[in-house]
Amino acid sequence: MAGRDFIGYAELTDRALRGVVRDVLLIVAKKGLLGSHHFYIAFDTRHPGVRISDALREQYPFEMAIVLQHQFWDLQVTEHDFEVTLSFNKIPETIRVPFLAIRGFRDPSVEFGFQFQSPPPHPGTAIATKSETPLPAPIEEEEKVAEVPREEPGQVVSLDAFRKK
């Protein structure tokens, strides 16, 4: 039988993964899409702070998925949300999505993705607009990820390989 989680692993994981989405979008906002990367982002259209047209809200009353690939413009990323212009039926529309509204993120070019564990709230349910603790700080462009030496299966890897130098 599992014990009670006094640490809050689900919330910590949720916040970290939303930070991943924010960091990825910050990279794309600065450098554009690199290689064949592209993203599917699903979000709760009922979440406070989501800004979409009435026509889109009528078409997607609960959840909507967008694709950032060939036709998107003016991607702007803040600590709490992102804004992007997309084409819907050849009509450009700027949408704003708080990171807390995101239900799933996927980059099929590298088979990477995840869905958030907490289910979308039911209509009429209050939704927190800010986490009690902020998202992790964005990764600075100058920060380098440590090169991890390739090891043969079954060998011990030193933790020093994962530490900043």
Task: List strands and helices in order, with pairings.
Elements: H1 9-31, E1 39-44, H2 54-59, E2 63-68, E3 72-77, E4 81-88, E5 91-98, E6 102-107, E7 112-115
3D architecture notes:
This protein is of the alpha+beta class and 165 residues long. The protein has a domain at 9-122: SspB-like (SH3 type barrels), CATH 2.30.30.220. The protein is 18% helix and 27% strand. The chain has helices at 9-31, 54-59, and strands spanning 39-44, 63-68, 72-77, 81-88, 91-98, 102-107, 112-115. The strands form two sheets. It has a four-stranded antiparallel β-sheet with strand order 2-1-6-7, with helices on one face. It is globular. The N and C termini lie far apart (41 Å). Mean pLDDT is 79; it is low at 119-133 and 141-158.
- Model regions low in confidence, pLDDT < 50 over at least 5 residues: 119-133, 141-158
User: What number is the mean pLDDT?
Assistant: 79
Q: Based on helices, strands and strand pairing, what is the structural class?
A: alpha+beta
Helix-strand sequence: HEHEEEEEE
Radius of gyration: 18 Å
How would you write the strand order of the largest sheet? 2-1-6-7
What's the number of helices? 2
Beta-strand percent range: 25-35%
The backbone outline, from C-alpha atoms, is: globular
Summarize the structure.
By secondary structure, this protein is of the alpha+beta class. The chain is 18% helix and 27% strand.
Question: Which terms summarize this structure?
Answer:
single chain; 165 residues; alpha+beta; SH3 type barrels; 3-stranded antiparallel β-sheet; 18% helix; globular
